[in-house]
Design goal:
about 140 residues; mainly alpha; 7 helices; about 65% helix; globular
């Protein structure tokens, strides 16, 4: 995991990066990536400034989306593309760009595959199946837009 195992520590990285961005403070490369992702999600920006956001539970049962999970998955997708890990993901992504209106929407589609892969892996108690993930992402090309 990028920032350690503690939920609060991970969230603190997001909150601090966004606050620094809002204050016009120079950002490190990872902070800049985080700020760009928060900027692309206006629905989460107010939450980044809430005093209880580090401890808050975001309940699916209450219809809430966990902004940290969502934005963390964006970072994961960007890192996968940058590092071409799993091998071939960058090429698949570049081909899919012609089918999607923008890269943000494509990342959202890829996040569904990532979430399915991670959920399946966790339920089996095994490492994520990279080939299954790549097959899912390749199938995004078959979607009608």
């Amino acid at each position: 995991m990028l920032f350690g195992q503690q939920r609060e520590q991970i969230r603190r990285v997001f909150v601090d990066a966004w606050r620094k961005h809002c204050d016009g403070v120079p950002l490190e490369p990872l902070e800049r990536s985080i700020a760009e992702i928060v900027d692309a999600h206006p629905e989460y920006q107010a939450a980044m400034m809430e005093s209880d956001v580090l401890e808050r539970d975001f309940s699916v049962d209450d219809g809430e989306t966990n902004p940290f999970l969502h934005m963390g998955m964006h970072i994961t997708i960007v890192e996968q593309i940058t590092c071409d890990r799993p091998p071939g993901i960058r090429d698949i992504y570049n081909r899919l760009l012609s089918r999607y209106p923008d890269s943000h929407e494509l990342e959202h589609a890829m996040m569904q595959c990532l979430a399915e892969t991670l959920w399946s892996s966790r339920s089996r108690g095994e490492p994520p199946d990279e080939q299954k993930y790549l097959r899912c992402v390749r199938r995004l090309n078959q979607r009608v837009l």
